[in-house]
Amino acid sequence: MSTLPLTVTVITLNEERNLPRLLRSLEGFAREVVIVDSGSTDQTQSIAQAAGARWATHAWSGYGQQKNYAQSLAQNDWVFSIDADEELTEALKLEIRRRFESGTIGQHTAYSLPRLSWYLGRWIRHGGWYPNRLTRLSRRDQSRWTEPQVHEELETTGSTGELESDLLHYPFADIREQVETNLRYSREGSEKLRARGHSASLLKLIVKPIGKFLETYVIKLGCLDGMAGFIISVNAAHSIFLKYAYLFEEREN
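The structure corresponding to this sequence follows.
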């Protein structure tokens, strides 16, 4: 089976744990894999090059900025941006292949797809984690990543179609890793709130986290994901608490 006229781009930093799984899922799929690294000190480079990926280094400038740089290196008209902790399913690869081979890929300039995440020994299907639809496949000349501090998005000048097959996601090795990620995102989220003129108050410190827990665990049915769903909801509430606690800290300092 021939590879598709498609470039897959990946940005990395010390991804020796995740990268082998991703690269295995790309075998025989895309004509080109481009990896842009921002200073790995582990075996990321040797793993990438052993798999035949193009390797490039680029000093860290932000998630969107790194992905735009990787996209600029693509040699094909169509680009699929994927994270190192993700994996293409056979169903998703087949769905994309059928689009290319039938010529229907050109019906849109970009495509979104659902992402299914694995956490604490199970696939998480509730609590706002799924379907978590993301735009990842696009024409290189008609798309660009936004460049905020966090939560970058792929924007296109044309229409966006929908793929139905899941992209698999392995975001955290354990609870500690999730908490550490929440700490970083909470700080960045707090800076956004401050820039918008938000202030800290005892009421917000109490109400906002409770509201987030009820949203994810009750309204979005995180309770159906068992103990993992409960832990996710508590961590989500803690992350919101920290965003407003950091605002209080900045005011006091």
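The domain at 4-169 is CATH 3.90.550.10 (Spore Coat Polysaccharide Biosynthesis Protein SpsA; Chain A).
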